[in-house]
Amino acid sequence: MRSDAPAGRPNQLFRNLNSKIALIPMMLVALVVFLGGTVWTVVYSFTNSKLLPRLKFVGLEQYERLWDAPRWIISIQNLAIYGILSLIFSLVIGFVLAALMDQKIRFENTFRTIFLYPFALSFIVTGLVWQWVLNPEYGVQFIVRSLGFTSFQFDPLYNADIVIYGILIAGLWQGTGLVMCLMLAGLRGIDEDIWKAARVDGIPMWRTYIFIIIPMMRPVFITTLVLIASSIVKVYDLVVAQTSGGPGIASEVPAKYVYDYMFQAQNLGQGFAASTMMLITVAIIVIPWAYLEFGGKKRG
Amino acid sequence: MANVSSLNAAASFDSVSGQVAGPRGKKPRKALSRRNIILYGTLIVAALYYLLPLYVMVVTSLKGMPEIRLGNIFSPPVEITFEPWVKAWATACTGLNCDGLSRGFWNSVRILLPSVVVSIAVASVSGYALANWRFKGADVFFSILIVGAFIPYQVMIYPIVIVLRELGVYGTLTGLVIVHTIFGMPILTLLFRNYFTSLPEELFKAARIDGAGFWQIYFRIMLPMALPIFVVAMILQVTGIWNDFLFGVVFTRPDTYPMTVQLNNIVNSVQGVKEYNVNMAATLLTGAVPLIVYFVSGRLFVRGIAAGAVKG
Questions:
Q1: Quick check: A233 and B129 CB within 8 A?
Q2: Which residues are within 8 A (CB) of A280 and not within 5 positions of it... i.e. 6 or more apart?
Q3: Whole-number Å distance between alpha carbons of A60 and A62
Q4: What angle do CA A221, B197, B150 make, to 5 degrees?
Q5: If contacts are CB pairs under 8 Å, which of residues 91-110 in chain B contact chain A?
Q6: C-alpha Rg value of chain B to the nearest Å
Q7: How much is the pLDDT for A152?
Q8: Which residue out of B111, B128, B158 would a mutagenesis test of the A interface target, given it has the greatest number of A Cβ atoms within 10 Å?
Q9: How far apart are CA B239 and CA B221, in angstroms?
């Protein structure tokens, strides 16, 4: 573990020995779990492991099976719809709320507390509440119908075509508060003089936001985007609680596919292949960002 | 002169009226300006949307089943009953057992306490070592750790199952504590490292000149100074671990399922008639712990997620 210390001087190994001992757990986690575990899963995704992991390589067979499985295709489609819409909506809603909160309003703390409390709840709680609110017999659909719109139809959790939007509503309810908080922190970080200058020049407020403030907040937007995106890929509990993947397989998501194949269908190879696909998705999101964010700085 | 005094008078008049009629900024603007109506109107509508599910949960959990079948979910209960709460806590059935949420609650408590303590202890020492006792190569591990925070758990979960099985702790409380310590580590280490780095270096140097060692400096200087950040870390971990579902399902056995898993099994169990009031009471009970933490901690909670989010 400590062999990475340069072996030039013999006492180098024992320099900061206590610190090295204290960091053993972290080094183990980084190397064994994060790096080792990931490599292990990727390697085993090329095997035909079923009930137990076996090192019998079959090339890309698991991936071919994966992309032939209708359930996986639906999972990916759902993730794409859910992901894109929830990125757009949570950024827009989050920013608008933050901009409203930034108008030196009264009761700012109260409003923030209200917008953020869903974030403290678990996805299971969120999913179950919205399962109830969207219940067609008693919930939103029933109420709108009883107001006189008798042909009103909104039963996302029982309608395979729109079920993912039902999950989206719940996901947005839970997550936009966080986006609002991040955006608000970004807005507060903008120099008061910018606003004054814009006002002196007679630029209307909405134009100041769109052409000056939002471009200035680019880093905040990008960080938020990466955060939401990488959490979207992991979405699991919400679906389990709200729909259990149903009706049928209409609201399946990749993370659920992985869990079901690893721990229930006992088809480990499929689980590994699917989780490797998830890893690739996250990598596509995170690596360019990490490169821009950290790679640039180190050189500069 | 006269000008100044009249200005003063105006200002003092303004501040007085501000206190009486409610502060509206320094200009004597109309309270119900179009801008304010739009601004507060939008905020209030949004706030109602966010509050609605909580309200629905509360009223549903206080109604009897006949009333639920009659009315709509938003109407307040005509006859308040606490029976659903009692049932949710003590006798609601999952597919496996019928002791309600209480079993899950105590399981969660048993999981929560050691997980929070161990994960914060390990991460704070790691953060301290990374901030003050740097050695070559340490940052490499730290980078792996931070990048690893983005890896979906599903990728690492099976190797961990194998390792824990080999260690003989798979399915036990110890195993789950280890898992929570592992996955809490990136964010918590980052939190502590950033905090300890922000402390003045002279402090650390002075302690070293006085002959204090690694652990002495940690326990006698850094720990007492870092109390606020410990609170932030605790908030993060308590809500995070309480709300966890995936690790609970994968790393525990049915009789030690945490509350979230127990809740999901109760509500989504296919047997019997759906008792929505019991379900909502159970949901509220499960959400109560993180909600209490959230409402009590207020700004610290925001600080915690901001520290985790913006820098992570």
A1: no
A2: none
A3: 6
A4: 40
A5: none
A6: 26
A7: 81
A8: B158
A9: 28
Write a three-state SS string for B205-242: HHHHHCCCCHHHHHHHHHHHHCHHHHHHHHHHHHHHHH
Cβ distance B309 to A263 less than 8 Å, yes or no, reads: no
In the numeric block, which tokens belong to residue A203? 């630029």
pLDDT tens-digit series, residues B220-259: 999 998 988 899 899 889 999 999 999 999 998 888 899 9
Segment 159-188 of chain B within 8 Å of chain A by CB: 159-160, 162-163, 181-182, 185
Give residue B93's region: left, alpha or beta (phi > 0; psi -120 to 50).
Answer: beta
List CB contacts (< 8 A) between B310 and chain A. Answer: 182, 185, 220, 223
Residue-range domain boundaries for chain B: 24-81, 100-311
CA distance A68 to chain B (A): 21
Inter-chain CB proximity A109 and B242 less than 8 Å: no
Residue pairs spanning A and B at CB distance below 8 A: 268
Mutate to test the interface with A, among B150, B164, B268 (most CBs of A within 10 A): B150
Instruction: Report the 10 Å Cβ neighbour count for A197.
Output: 13
Nearest residue, CB atoms, B68 vs list A27, A122, A138: A138
Q: Which residues contact B294 (CB under 8 A, 6 or more apart)?
A: A116, A117, A120, B239, B301
Question: Is B263–A255 a contact, with Cβ atoms under 8 angstroms apart?
Answer: no
Structure ipTM: 0.85
For domain A64-299, say whether CATH 1.20.120.80 is its number. Answer: no
Residue B69, token pair as written in the block: 């079948």
| Residue B184 CA to its chain's centroid (Å) | 13
Sequence ranges of the domains in chain A: 2-44, 64-299
Tell me the one-letter amino acid at B268: N
CA distance A63 to chain B (A): 15
Distance CA(B2)–CA(B12), nearest Å, equals 15
CA atoms of B276 and B61, how far apart (whole Å): 8
- Please say if the pLDDT value at position B210 is more than 50: yes
- Sequence-ordered list of residues with C-beta below 8 angstroms from that of B47, at least 6 positions apart, any chain: A111, A114, A115
The whole-angstrom distance between B92's CA and the closest CA on chain A is 16
Cβ–Cβ contact B118 with A under 8 A: no
Give the CA-trace dihedral at A238, A239, A241, A245, to 10 degrees. 180
Least confident of A37-46, A248-257, B24-33, B161-170: B24-33
CATH of B100-311, one of 1.10.3720.10, 3.40.430.10, 3.50.50.60, 1.10.10.60: 1.10.3720.10
| pTM higher than the cut 0.95 | no
Reading the block at residue A153, the tokens are 């139809």
- Tell whether B66 is within 8 A of chain A (Cβ): no
Amino acid, single-letter form, for residue A66: L
Q: To the nearest whole angstrom, how far is the Cα of B122 from the nearest Cα of chain A?
A: 7
What pairs with residue B171 in β-bridges? B252
| In the predicted structure, residue B34 carries a pLDDT above the cut 50 | yes
